[in-house]
Amino acid sequence: MFKKIVTVAMAATTVAAVGLLSGASQAAETKLTAASCFPIGSPPSKPFERVVKAINEQGKGIVQVKMIGGAPAIGSPFTLTQKMSKGAYDLVGCPEAYFGNVLPEAPVMRFSDYSYAELRKNGAIDYLQKLFHAKGIHFLGMHHEFGPFHLFLSKPITGADLKGLHLRVSPVYTAFFKSLGATTQRSNFAQVYTYMENNTVQGYGWPALGWGPPSWLKVSKYRVEPGFYHASLHTLINLKKWNSLDQKVRDFLSKMVVGFEAKSSTDSPEFQALLKKQKDWMAAGGMKTITLEGAEREKWVNAAVHEGWIEVLDRSPEHGAALRKLFTK
User: Fold this and answer.
1) How confident is the model at residue 267 (pLDDT cuts 50, 70, 90)?
2) Section 244-262 average pLDDT
3) 70-88 burial string, b = 16+ CB within 10 Å, else e?
4) Do residues 51 and 101 touch, judged by C-beta distance below 8 A?
5) Residue 88 pLDDT > 50
6) How far is the C-alpha of 273 from the C-alpha of 260, rounded, in Å?
7) H or E, element range at 81
8) Phi and psi dihedrals of 291, rounded to 5?
């Protein structure tokens, strides 16, 4: 009888100990929330969704991230980073075009002549990080690169002159296209095909990767080379939350995002393979390439660089000048 009582007691103690250990393990697992600047499941949102999935798969016992949703269902993409900086979410996945209203210097991230690995070595990211911290944000990394932007057209051009063309634009390259003589207008994603089909616009800017529906090939007859700027997506985290995390969690999150960053670098084999596949698909669909050369190429490239940096220097004269030295060759 005594042995039975002891055995039962020991079993109960073991169960309790296991429960305590399990509870402690669960308690030690950090819980974070995240939001995307794009509709969940859409092409530009999927890269950040893959980041979250990878963190959850490899971070069991360390950290788990719950995706709350994506813009515009949860609000304007232009306010998402603002909300995150104030604690509404812990993490966001966004292009710099959607958080330039929080960080005036953000456009420098699209003008870089260096890879992110090089930017981390030459002090550029450290400089930018201080600016992020002043806004209550910690920059984890660039998690996806859609490549350079290109001008896609319904009719050919023979040089860098865009006079006579009415183009669909985003704020990223409006000044660039206007400087070469184009007139412009904005539209949402869904209107691009319709506007091209009915000749409301004769072209639009878009990244090489993360392209629109296959139907766009019907109205997009030409792609202009060279491309310009970088269409990249970034992972940001609330600074107060970041500072509250254990070092193990910080190291894990940094490692995960920088891992995606390395694979997305434009000089990586993975990126070059994707770019070739995309351009081959466009060519197979009948799209022709217009390659600017000589003086026309120089005019095109110089206009893109000049107009882009004017924006940064106007918005942030002091930091813009310092960042230009770090981000350009």
Assistant:
1) confident
2) 97
3) bbeebeebbbbbbbbbeeb
4) no
5) yes
6) 16
7) helix 77-85
8) -105, 115
Name the helix (H) or strand (E) containing 53: helix 46-58
Q: pTM for the complete prediction?
A: 0.83
Q: In the β-sheet with 149-153, what is the strand arrangement from edge to edge?
A: 183-186, 166-169, 203-207, 149-153, 222-225, 288-291
| Residue 312 identity | V
The shares of helix, strand and coil residues in the chain, as percent rounded to the nearest 5, are 50, 20, 30
Among left, alpha and beta (phi > 0; psi -120 to 50; other), residue 294 is: left
Give the separation between CA 201 and CA 163, rounded to whole angstroms: 13
Q: CA–CA distance from 280 to each of 104, 113, 175, 283 (Å)?
A: 37, 26, 30, 5
Render the burial of 130-160: b for 16+ CB within 10 Å, e for the rest: ebbeebbbbbbbbbbbbbbbbbbbbeebeeb
Q: Give the CATH class of 2-147+231-267.
A: alpha beta
pLDDT band at 5 (very low <50, low <70, confident <90, very high): very low
Q: Which CATH superfamily is domain 149-229+271-323 in?
A: Bacterial extracellular solute-binding protein, family 7 (3.40.190.170)
Portions of the chain given CATH number 3.40.190.170: 2-147+231-267, 149-229+271-323
Q: Nearest-5° angle of CA 309, CA 183, CA 188?
A: 85
CB burial class (10 A; 0-12, 13-18, 19+) of residue 68? middle
SS (H, E, C) 125-173: HHHHHHHHHHCCEEEEEEEEECCCEEEEECCCCCCCCCCCCEEEECCCC
Rounded to whole angstroms, the Cα distance separating 57 from 34 reads 16
pLDDT band at 27 (very low <50, low <70, confident <90, very high): low
Distances (CA, A) of 257 to 143, 153, 173, 313: 6, 35, 27, 29
Write out pLDDT tens, residues 290-329. 999 999 999 999 999 999 999 899 999 999 999 999 999 9
Tokens of 270: 């993975």
